[in-house]
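Bug report (template v2)

What were you trying to do?
Predict the complex of my protein with magnesium ion.

What happened?
Run completed; filing so the output is reviewed.

Input:
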Amino acid sequence: MADTMLTLHGLAASRGYAVGRAVVLGAAALEVSHYRIAPEDAESECARLSDALTRAHEEFLRLADQLPPDSPRELGALLQVHAMLLVDPMLTQEPLDLIRQKHYNAEWALTAQGQILGEQFAAMSDEYLRERSSDVRHVIERVLQVLVGAPEMSTPLACSGQGDDALIVVAHDIAPADMVKLRGAQFAAFVTDLGGATSHTAIVARSMGVPAVVGLNHICQFANDGDILIVDGEAGVVLINPSPAVLIEYAERQAGYAADRASLTLIKDTPPVTLDGIRIGLQANIEWPEEAASALAAGAEGIGLFRSEFLFMNRADLPDEEEQYAAYASVVRTMAGRPVTIRTLDIGSDKTLDGEQAVSTNPALGERAVRYCLARPDMFASQLRAILRASAHGHVRILLPMIAHMHEVHACLAAIDSARRDLDARGQAYAAHIEVGAMVEIPAIAIAIEPFADTLDFLSIGTNDLIQYTLAIDRADPSVARLYDPLHPAVLRLIAHTINAGARAGKPVSVCGEMAGDVTLTRLLLGLGLTHFSMHAQQMLDVKREILRAHSNALRTRVAASLNRAESIDLALL
Ligand code: PEP
Ligand code: MG
């Protein structure tokens, strides 16, 4: 355990401050639940763990027994060693103490003890003993599998929040699918070694409204379970075991931040109009249907981006048409007539379906999003029917991700027509007119935008991917994060070009990438002529405050003057 204060610098991925205890999640640990149990449940939790240990022990003995005669002798010996580890008090006793004393659930107690043992073995001078740390890890993973296999443990990773301390997730990386499991748990912050500020991990943390710092490189190496952490989501800094003076300093910052949040609620019902009278549209990005309510509460005028793929992740099966219809219709009903922009499945790249490995050598350039859907017409049709049926309850718009070619637009429009015919045949209702738009997130479409602006009803600029593809920077890779530059003149010219083409064609253009919710870029986007923003609900009031203070036409003149510069635009000049 680091007992002197350590400071690690990463990328600020989600705003705010958190102070709490570290829960270090290994890859296996992410597959299981971490939560505090009620004290009166300690004995039954101990029994659950003991039972899993016994079952894993018997399994190893059975395996050793049933080895074919020609198996290497070492294999049998290894299985015997594994079986022995499972009856050693370091695994049968110590985790039970953690359950009784700290009220950890069985999985957490086991992984916490596993980490301690792993470190003890790794520190041994004898090479043979050092290698035993991997045996410990192996048997623990087996016991975790036994625990997870029990029917009552099929629930996602969750934290009951019964403990006194806030808990902070520390992980090497958290895949978007694992973030889905972490969602709903009462973790106070997320910190990871990997990830860029617009990685989907960061985006999900933002949607949960908890601070996150990513790209820390060594946090898993330095932080241990139970360490006190300060997460500074404003500066992108994590402090491990801070001194009392630093804790006091951060308590003040936390209070100041909370007071600022509270004061922002005063402008919740103020229309977002610039000083020179330009009315700006503010909509919300959501990943899950339940978020529609908080979008509305934050004053969103609609849903500018519903990332439907999150309904598909982290499950063995695919959501069928009925399940999707129920999810989309619930958002549409919550938004009560306001527009709801449902993006068709954007799977691939870092967002994969369960059991599907990325086969592409470079998934970001592979069969992602609309390419994936057009290659699976049945699956696409069921999503389109579900969306169309939801349109019977309000104002729905369909948004197509990763469009690069006009033939993709035509294929999608044909698929929508065919879905309409399916519904006609069934006698099911849908709205007479439904707007269809495209994400502008591949430079090709931004450069050759005019026919797309003419054909489609609206455009939505996905700056996260547009920056990634324009600058050839993996948005999730911290080693190139410093080159991921939203202010690069090429990026700004593509945005400006798209906004201008939309204006000429009389079609609304929004930005729904993370730039829209970054309050430091609000003046720049206004200066580029943007009038429709879509962002996480948590960012909306900050952006609105900036809009209320801005003079749009003056910003347009200043931004136009700097668009042809060779260097990234200097925000201080705006
Ligand atoms: C984007 O690319 O900017 C976007 C909004 O889509 P996603 O972040 O889901 O790729
Ligand atoms: Mg995108």
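What did the reviewer find?
Residues 42-65 form the longest helix (24 residues). The CA atoms of residues 370 and 401 lie 6 Å apart.
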